[in-house]
Write a structure and sequence with these properties.
With 198 residues, the protein is mainly α. 69% of the residues lie in helices and 0% in strands. It contains 11 helices and no strands. The protein starts with a helix and ends in a 6-residue tail after the last helix.
Length: 198
């Protein structure tokens, strides 16, 4: 329960509270790779990437195959500019698990690294998957963000809002959503999500 609540606080931009709850969870279960990875994710959203990297590396010491730890380590590394390591980790994770979420994050990191053609390829693969299986609109929006199609991204975010996707709350705090920050379409969406604090 403590971990889930810390993630909710993090999604709301209440980072110090989220991190404090994460420390409490770690005190109760210091050998849990999941708790370390969740703390790494909260640190990523709080833009404390060095601490996030350390937390994820600790999770991977405990379980070298933990997908959340691999994903979150890659995202923190990308924010620190280590795109090559982040992309390699996400490519391996995406090949292993074939989950649309991992493809979406890979597209975002490729776009963040300035590798537009590769981001476009991954985003197109994700869109093709959506033709024959369910891919949440938020993940399709990630592909649009990665390729600089911000109007299309906002259209998909509206679809995610209509679908009541709980992960839509990420747009208020996720560094990968920074390309959206200058748009006049973002504040009204955040307000409808109840994220006026972020």
């Amino acid at each position: 329960m403590t971990c889930a609540y810390s993630v909710l606080l993090s999604f709301q931009g209440r980072h110090e509270e989220a991190l404090a709850l994460g420390r409490t969870a770690l005190a109760h279960d210091p050998m849990s790779p999941y708790v370390h990875a969740l703390c790494g994710a909260n640190l990523y959203r709080a833009r404390r990437h060095d601490d996030g990297i350390a937390s994820c590396r600790r999770a991977l010491e405990l379980d070298a195959t933990a997908p959340l730890a691999i994903l979150t380590l890659a995202l923190n590394l990308a924010q620190k500019g280590d795109h090559a390591t982040a992309i390699a980790a996400l490519e391996a994770l995406s090949a292993r698990a074939r989950m649309p979420a991992f493809q979406a994050w890979l597209a975002l990191v490729l776009g963040h690294a300035g590798r537009g053609a590769e981001a476009e390829r991954v985003a197109a693969e994700l869109a093709a998957r959506a033709e024959h299986e369910y891919v949440p609109p938020l993940l399709l929006a990630a592909g649009d963000i990665a390729t600089g199609r911000l109007d299309a991204a906002f259209d998909r975010l509206e679809d995610a809002f209509a679908a009541r996707d709980p992960y839509l709350l990420l747009i208020g705090v996720d560094p990968m959503a920074d390309p959206l920050r200058e748009s006049p379409r973002l504040p009204p969406l955040l307000e409808r999500l109840g994220l006026t604090r972020v």
